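Appendix B.2, paired examples.
Example (i):
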Amino acid sequence: HVQLVESGGDSVQAGGSLKLSCAGSLYSDGRSWWCMAWFRQAPGKQREAVATIESGVGAVWYADSVQDRFIITRARNEIYLQMDNLQPNDSATYYCAAARVVSYGVPCLARENIYKFWGQGTQVTVS
């Protein structure tokens, strides 16, 4: 089955940077595409979408809270999240997620329920 593995989480001071990676056992075919996303969840809070990217042309979406600070990129079956100017409220467990879709070149939805495959999470702590 599809497997996703995140890495790159760490503890940093406010204003610092991290780059998260997600390696996935995803395979391309000619008639469907993938949405991939980063979510995060802090203790006692709901899981929220941070950024999404689709496999057709790389269309992206970002949560307002991370605009101009985070960048999501892709390379085949791997995605990255470059996080700059980290703030304490960015502290959370970050999860990589994936979904098969039939659209092409359209930014992926941020709703959690469309994503069927999830990684184990990687911890980011900002102080």
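Example (ii):
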Amino acid sequence: QVQLVESGGGLVQAGGSLRLSCVASGRTFSSYAMGWFRQAPGKEREFVTTISSGGSTYYADSVKGRFTISRDNAKNTVYLQMNSLKLEDTAVYYCAAGRTATVIIERYSYWGQGTQVTVSS
């Protein structure tokens, strides 16, 4: 199975930036679409952004213009650059892998353990 390991979460003031990383196992990383989701306490996990195996990207309206997803296939890594962070961005952030870039959470087959992002005032 594919294993995904996230890092980069932490505490940041509103308006600040963080970069999350997710490293995948296996030699077929480049064939997977990758996504980022987030989950606040007591709430449903929600779509943030996705990137296809070819590099096409899509963002939730709530993060468009502030977050950037990218991938480095040579390093088996996907990144989430988060700028201009807001209090409402506070959540556990998860990376996921699937066959197709999609907003539908059920389409992703593999998940990371999550990393906490806390935005303070």
